[in-house]
Amino acid sequence: MTEEESRLYEKAVRLAASAHKGQVDKGGTDYIRHPLAVASMLEDGRDRIAAVLHDVVEDTKVTLEELAREFPPDIVEAVRLLTRQPGPDFTYRGYLEEIRKNPMARRVKMADLAHNMDLGRISHPGPEDYARRERYRKSMIFLRQDKEKTMELQAIHHVAVIVSDYRKSRHFYVDLLGFEVIRENFRKERGDYKLDLKLGDCELEIFGIPDSPPRPSYPEACGLRHLAFRVENIEETIAWLNGLGIATEPVRTDEFTGKKMTFFKDPDGLPLELHE
C-alpha cells in the first residue's frame, strides 16, 4: 500500500469496527472479522479499503454520502455496487451484473464469496449452509463470465531447473542444444547464477545453486524446481484460486523482469508459479 492508502485503510477499519460493533456472523464471531478477512485476501490497497467497507452501508446506519466525504470516489462506487438495495426492481442477477462491470467491486465480491464459502466458520453446518455455499459457488462462476481470459491459466510461462554444475549445464543447453540466452545474472547475495534461456516459444530457467542436494530433497534440489503459468492479471487469478480453496503466497515482483509473480502448490507440494 502507498502511504495514502495505508491512512485510508486505517480509517476504514476504524469506521467499520465502530459501525459493525455488536454484530456477529452466522458462526457467532464478531462481524468485523469478516470484512477484515476479505481485505486480507486482496493484493491491491484500494481493493482492501473497499473490502473493509463493503458491508457498512448494507448492514449498518452508515450512508454512501458519509463515505463520500471520507473516501475516494472509486472506492465509494465499489461499495455502492456491493450494497444490495432490495426493491421492486431488485434481482440478485442484476446486482451481480453491475458488480461484474466494475473491476474493483468484482474482485472484492469474489473474495467476499470465497470467505463466505468457508463453512469452517460455522461449528455445525447444516443443509441450509451447504445450500448457501452452492449459491455462492454459482455466483462466483457468474462473476467470472466474460472475464475468464484474465483469470484462467493461459500457457506455461517457463520451466525452472536447478543444476549441480552451472558451467556444464550452460554449455549443454546453449552450445549443444542451441538455446538462446535471454539474460544471465549472478545473484551475489546467494552466490549463484540464474540463466534465462529460450527455444521457440518456450523459456527455461537454469539455477546454478551451489551444494544443492539430490532429489528427492526439497526444495532446492537438482531437477525440476517449479512450473510457472502465464496469466494476464495476477490479482484476478489469485481471487479465482482462493475461491477454489487454493492458498497463494503474497504477490512480489521479479527482481530481473519487473513482472508480478506469486506461488501456490499442487497436492504434493510442487511449487507452481503465476507470472504476468
From TrEMBL:
Transmembrane segments: none annotated. The keyword NAD does not apply. Keywords: Metal-binding. InterPro entries: Fosfomycin_Res_Enzymes (IPR051332), Glyas_Bleomycin-R_OHBP_Dase (IPR029068), Glyas_Fos-R_dOase_dom (IPR004360), Glyoxalase_1_CS (IPR018146), VOC_core (IPR037523), YwkD-like_dom (IPR037478). Residues 155-276 form the VOC domain. One of its GO terms (molecular function) is lactoylglutathione lyase activity. This is VOC family protein. It comes from Candidatus Pullilachnospira stercoravium.
